[in-house]
């Protein structure tokens, strides 16, 4: 499966770009948010990609970060949410906004995406709430970057994703606090919750700390 594309933008459409990779052009469909962040024709660009396969369709969808790609993958696993609706949700809210809405059970925010009704929005929140901490931790990873220029010609590549190296243990707490800040928690309450979670679970990784801190911060009663 094609997991990442890096090359030169040949053409920008209303919902896709054509990226030249060593003489082969790949049509990659993107949200308006992603398209707005991409450079113009002739410039280098890189996107993480997901291949959508249907009986009548083979389509590459592109994302600037692994977190956005993961949310799209998880959203399409919810009954009634197709690739187009998933892209609308992520494109409207952004990956941090999706994490916040789902972690807090805010289905109204999910419903704000074009073509997403209240029943689907509620189903998304109910089915994916436990997935939010893991994707929030993933958000600390790098964005897709185009390859550096090379004297040997076009350096563009198509590659499958490689696992990111594990974060050092000392960074788990800071990553967890950053994720909670993205959800709208203040620095002091985030730091307090993460510290309490770390004391209770010293071996917890970033995802474990986020889960534990969210439990501590959840309204009581």
TrEMBL record:
Residues 138-182 are annotated as: Disordered. Has three domains with a flexible linker between the domains II and III and assumes an 'L' shape. Domain III is highly mobile and contacts RuvB. Pfam families: HHH_5 (PF14520), RuvA_C (PF07499), RuvA_N (PF01330). Residues 167-221 are annotated as: Domain III. The gene is ruvA. One of its GO terms (cellular component) is Holliday junction resolvase complex. Signal peptide: none annotated. The RuvA-RuvB-RuvC complex processes Holliday junction (HJ) DNA during genetic recombination and DNA repair, while the RuvA-RuvB complex plays an important role in the rescue of blocked DNA replication forks via replication fork reversal (RFR). RuvA specifically binds to HJ cruciform DNA, conferring on it an open structure. The RuvB hexamer acts as an ATP-dependent pump, pulling dsDNA into and through the RuvAB complex. HJ branch migration allows RuvC to scan DNA until it finds its consensus sequence, where it cleaves and resolves the cruciform DNA. GO terms for molecular function: ATP binding; four-way junction DNA binding; four-way junction helicase activity. Homotetramer. Forms an RuvA(8)-RuvB(12)-Holliday junction (HJ) complex. HJ DNA is sandwiched between 2 RuvA tetramers; dsDNA enters through RuvA and exits via RuvB. An RuvB hexamer assembles on each DNA strand where it exits the tetramer. Each RuvB hexamer is contacted by two RuvA subunits (via domain III) on 2 adjacent RuvB subunits; this complex drives branch migration. In the full resolvosome a probable DNA-RuvA(4)-RuvB(12)-RuvC(2) complex forms which resolves the HJ. GO terms for biological process: DNA recombination; DNA repair. It comes from Tranquillimonas rosea. Belongs to the RuvA family. Residues 73-92, 108-127 form the Helix-hairpin-helix DNA-binding motif class domain. Residues 1-64 are annotated as: Domain I. Keywords: ATP-binding, Cytoplasm, DNA damage, DNA recombination, DNA repair, DNA-binding, Helicase, Hydrolase, Nucleotide-binding. This is Holliday junction branch migration complex subunit RuvA. It is found in: Cytoplasm.
């Amino acid at each position: 499966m094609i997991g990442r594309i890096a090359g030169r933008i040949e053409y920008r459409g209303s919902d896709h770009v054509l990226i030249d990779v060593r003489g082969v052009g790949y049509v990659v469909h993107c949200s308006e948010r992603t398209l707005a962040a991409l450079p113009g024709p002739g410039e280098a660009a890189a996107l993480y990609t997901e291949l959508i396969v249907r009986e009548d369709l083979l389509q590459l969808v592109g994302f600037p970060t692994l977190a956005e790609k993961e949310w799209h993958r998880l959203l399409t696993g919810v009954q009634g949410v197709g690739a187009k609706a998933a892209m609308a949700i992520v494109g409207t809210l952004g990956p941090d906004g999706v994490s916040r809405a789902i972690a807090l059970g805010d289905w109204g925010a999910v419903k704000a995406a074009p073509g997403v009704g209240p029943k689907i929005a509620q189903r998304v929140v109910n089915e994916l709430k436990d997935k939010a901490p893991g994707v929030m931790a993933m958000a600390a990873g790098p964005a897709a970057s185009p390859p550096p220029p090379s004297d040997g010609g076009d350096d563009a590549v198509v590659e499958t994703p490689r696992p990111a190296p594990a974060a050092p243990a000392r960074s788990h707490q800071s990553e967890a606090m950053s994720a909670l800040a993205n959800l709208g928690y203040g620095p002091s309450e985030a730091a307090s919750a993460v510290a309490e979670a770390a004391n209770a679970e010293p071996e917890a990784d970033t995802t474990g700390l986020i889960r534990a801190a969210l439990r501590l911060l959840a309204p009581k009663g």
